[in-house]
Amino acid sequence: xxxxxxxxxxxxxxxxxxxxxxxxxxxxxxxxxxxxxxxxxxxxxxxxxxxxxxxxxxxxxxxxxxxxxxxxxxxxxxxxxxxxxxxxxxxxxxxxxxxxxxxxxxxxxxxxxxxxxxxxxxxxxxxxxxxxxxxxxxxxxxxxxxxxxxxxxxxxxxxxxxxxxxxxxxxxxxxxxxxxxxxxxxxxxxxxxxxxxxxxxxxxxxxxxxxxxxxxxxxxxxxxxxxxxxxxxxxxxxxxxxxxxxxxxxxxxxxxxxxxxxxxxxxxxxxxxxxxxxxxxxxxxxxxxxxxxxxxxxx
Length: 299
Ligand code: GUN
Hints:
Blueprint: E1 13-14, H1 17-33, H2 35-39, E2 44-50, H3 54-70, E3 73-79, H4 85-97, E4 103-106, H5 116-122, H6 134-142, H7 150-161, E5 170-174, H8 181-190, E6 194-198, H9 205-209, E7 214-217, E8 235-238, E9 242-243, E10 250-251, H10 256-260, E11 265-266, H11 273-293
Parallel strand pairs: 1-11, 2-3, 2-4, 5-6, 5-7, 7-8, 8-11
Antiparallel strand pairs: 9-10
Guanine binds near residues 105, 106, 107 and 179.
């Protein structure tokens, strides 16, 4: 009897976010290299960080590095933790009026008691590289031109690069945040998936996730989706950036080992969604620049 007779061969695809994002950045770099001759300058992204939240320090540094790799001019402004809201808002208004700035990103979360909503609505819509401005959110839900938020945009690109067409598929999203869960659910709907949006009050989550052909997890809880909660052949996108409480190591919202043995494809953490988010930020910055130099909002 063959050694392999009792084993079914499970072929798993690890979705390589690093490679897919590198390809996007390389293509953007090529585009940006032609801008000085054509437009007299390159795009300029200004990132604002308030306070010293350790995760935000790392994220902001990675955004600057990506800009450098793509050839996007970038400025990072760091304000103290106790910056008054009016001061932050007047800085944003100054950047709105600065013709040399194409994109403005204020890193979230903001320290209390700063109002994220007020900050986001103060950023000029045409410089909103995050796609968080109320007019951009409205554009997503009304299917009118808008800037797409980076993480959901990156997730849709990962699915496309993996050859997964959401059309007619059962897609389950865990998490209902403004940044990921809500917009990715809408984008999956627009791609003709049948979408279920789950959250902390969902009853019998496992019975819902077992129905999923595409599972997007943005719950913010380490390894909360385990192998018994998914069906064979599912495509799993893990948006989590957590610490394993046992090992202290970086991990996702999905228990990779138990889920990978059932999934057809799965994103790793790190190296999945994270790099795609940053590559999409680069793409959005180029889009904002092009709208500005071409004198129209056609997003
Ligand atoms: N914090 C976590 N994700 C994001 C993001 O996509 N944009 C901003 N501005 N802050 C974040």
